Amino acid sequence: MNEHEMAAYRRWLRHAGEDEAVMEELKSLANNETALSGRFSADLSFGTSGMRALMGAGSSRMNIFTVRKATQGLASALNARWEAPSVAIAYDSRHNSRRFAEETACVLAGNGVRAWLYPTLMPTPALSFAVRALKCKAGVMITASHNPRRYNGYKVYGASGGQPTDKTAKSIEQFIRKTDIFADIRRVALEAGLASGLIRYIGPEVEQAYLDAVSALGRKTDRPPRSAIVYTPLNGTGLSCVTRILAQNGFSNVTVVPEQRDPNGDFPSCPTPNPELPATMAAGMALGREMGADLLIATDPDCDRIGLAVKAGADMRLLSGHEIGALMLEYICRRHTEEGTMPDRPVVVTSIVSTLMVEQIAKRYGVLVRRVPVGFKYIGEIVTALEEKEETERFLFGFEESNGVLTGAHVRDKDGVNGALTAAQMAEYYRERGMTLGCAMDELYRAYGYYQNDTDGFAFPGASGAAQMKACMERLRAARLQTLGDQAVECFIDYRDGVAMHADGRMEYLNLPASNGLRIELGGHTAVTIRLSGTEPKLKLYYAVYGQTQAEAQAAMERLKAAVKELLNEKTE
User: Fold this and answer.
1) Closest listed residue to residue 58, CA positions, set 11, 102, 92
2) What is the gyration radius of the CA atoms in the chain, in angstroms?
3) Residue range 390-433, pLDDT digits in tens
4) How far apart are CA 207 and CA 16, in angstroms?
5) Which domains does the chain have, with CATH numbers?
6) pLDDT at position 535, please?
7) Residue 317: what are its φ and ψ, rounded to 5°?
8) SS3 sequence, 114-178?
9) Quick check: 80 and 180 in contact, CB under 8 A?
10) Which among 59, 145, 269, 402 is annotated as catalytic?
């Protein structure tokens, strides 16, 4: 533990007494220099997604003091740009989330910024909607999404209802860096803020308007739905909004997983509440099997992502994010085609690492595909650009491989409530045609081929891990591979420099925001995308292969993974 860290520790001991839990933790670590160094070696970083970290004492943890500092920086940035700005605030079911949300409101009010606070926990998409509905200049969502229970986060949204651009995030970060965590904070007590009107609670009419906007996107039918649905909010924020949206659209046969029903920051039956994981979905799938349900829907703690498992004989089959995206795109295109409501020049937006089946489905229905970097904010930016041209009706669907979906322009982020309704109506659509969603997915594989995707990580442990990871990435970039394994490289894409280098010597410049990633494309719809993790010293790997049969696709996946592993081992030596 160096002198700077020790000085910071002593300062916290003098000034952090307001929070008994923080003070108790600080005192308990008095003789543990390693633990203290981890808490004071750096400040929480602020990026386009805000902050996310373990809760606890110190400048690198989520606590009321780091929340106040971030909010002071946000308030200063808003006041420097806008006259009388306002901010909408929501929070999830995690420990301290309500307190962090109230602290956010108190600091905003202390800086003359009106704070609109949801009085109860609310999904992230409802926060995005409130920013737009209340004409706020920003929004703050207190959530750590699907991270384990010891984490929390501070997610910032811009005036569009989407996450801020890189330029805006850097501007906010500069204000935060200039803020002293104790000396520079201006705040009022919650009661004083409410009395002055600078803190106001968001009324139920905003939540209802959000649900009405989601309902307006759904399928209209005179027949009452008959699908049997199991739903789990994973002890998060989704219970009220999801059950209400399903009831509002006629779904009466809905059973909520009992042990995951109520908000609980301990997430006792799903320690990592990520709906992509089989272990997280196990309780819901067991209940679905017992009831013979057509569909299991899960939403993560802040209800911006969904997980789906579908009836497969007497069992339940968990769908991947790629399969959810492909199924929903096919369903949306079919529905619009049958109803004669397909817009002119329709657009689907997805990430650069999502299933390549998208292009095949889009081609069949005459839909334009826009690929964007990983991160739903880029999908939201496309929707905002369409809105500015008064062309939002062109936006059919947006999705990313990590189970985020959006079917409308009512918000600028992924929407688990919207996704839940779309999934339920999709299940009913195929049920009316004598098919389960599992059958519908198998039909897509037969029609378009077996597009298979997988993800992995290549870790760089230790103190020097981050530097080694970046050096590996630069060696890969400089190599501009001609072959990978026993296959020729057809295209080598550098997303940082925005260029695609084809095997025939052509160079194509990309119209995409810069991101530190590479993509190696081989023949036969086979590719691997490599990018830096934003949260740990790890290269994230996204594999995509194709086969005419499932066995052929699996064999191609094994060959690709082996070739990539050999390549990375070589580039780290």
Assistant:
1) 11
2) 24
3) 999 999 999 999 999 999 999 999 999 999 999 999 999 999 99
4) 36
5) 1-41 (no CATH), 42-202 (3.40.120.10), 210-217+226-448 (3.40.120.10), 451-572 (3.30.310.50)
6) 65
7) -115, 120
8) EEEECCCCCCHHHHHHHHHHCCCCEEEEECCCCCCCCEEEEEEEECCCCCCCHHHHHHHHHHHHC
9) no
10) 145
Of 210, 448, 498, 176, residue with least CA distance to 322: 448
By the 8 A CB rule, do 138 and 87 touch? yes
302 close to 263: Cβ distance less than 8 angstroms: no
Q: Nearest CA to 229 among 252, 205, 248? A: 252
DSSP string, 426-475: HHHHHHTTT--HHHHHHHHHHHH-EEEEEEEEEE--STTHHHHHHHHHHH
Question: Does the annotation mark 269 as catalytic?
Answer: no
Q: Half-sphere exposure of 76 toward its Cβ, with a 13 Å CA cutoff?
A: 19
Cβ distance 492 to 501 under 8 Å?
yes
364 backbone dihedrals φ, ψ, rounded to 5°: -60, -35
For residue 569 the two structure tokens come to 């081992």
Tally of residues, the chain:
573
**Interior angle at CA 350, CA 450 and CA 535, nearest 5:** 100
56 touches 63 (CB < 8 A): yes
What lies within 8 Å, CB to CB, of 428 at 6+ separation is 219, 221, 225, 226, 227
Q: What is the pLDDT of residues 457-497, one digit of tens each?
A: 888 887 678 888 889 999 999 988 999 998 999 999 999 99
Torsion from C-alpha of 253, 257, 262, 264, nearest 10 degrees? -150
User: Which parts of the chain sit beneath pLDDT 50?
Assistant: none
